[in-house]
Amino acid sequence: MTVQDAIEQIQQLLRTLEGVRAAPEYPPDITTATPVIVTFAQRGQWVGNTLDDVRGLHHIVIELRVAHRDLSRAVETMMRYVDIIPLTLFRALRAGQLTAIETFEAIDYEIGGDESGEVVTLRARFTVRNAKIVVEL
Question: Cβ(40)–Cβ(24) under 8 Å?
């Protein structure tokens, strides 16, 4: 399995969440339909594990973007996902649905604003810390 496999599995899982309008494989330039979820690798490290495989520990970022037309409504929408996204990932890992990831350490989150051209959004950034991916050589 690869980091991209892990990202694709996360996106497939999160696009099924109620209310999510899009969860593309790769981040779009402009976010028009919201809420939208994008996932990408932030940083990582590959190390030798055994003679037959390598282990990667990666920080994988999941961004939830919600249009900021009405602040109250945008915050309400955003807060719905603050619990749902991490719990969905922990449950999927436990159920064996995230086969590209053996385990992860924790999920951090932060909420802020973002402006892409004319679209102003609220953004929740979830960081899956130390997602462990093992690849056979």
Answer: no
Phi, psi of 17, rounded to the nearest 5 degrees: -65, 140
| Residue 96 confidence (pLDDT) | 95
Residue 84 DSSP code: H
Helix (H, G, I), strand (E, B) or coil at 106: strand
pLDDT tens, position by position, 72-122 = 888 898 999 999 999 999 999 999 999 999 999 999 999 998 776 666 788
Q: Is the dihedral of CA 24, 30, 33, 36 positive or negative?
A: positive
pTM: 0.90
Q: In what order do the strands lie in the sheet with 53-67?
A: 36-48, 53-67, 119-136, 106-116
| Pairwise CA distance, residues 108 & 101, whole Å | 17
Residue 71, helix vs strand vs coil:
helix
Rg of the chain in Å (alpha carbons): 16
Q: How many CA atoms lie within 13 A of 3 on its CB side?
A: 19
3 state DSSP class of 73 = helix
Which tens digits make up the pLDDT trace of 21-36?
888 777 776 656 788 9
What does the alpha-carbon distance between residue 86 and residue 82 come to, in Å, rounded to a whole number? 7
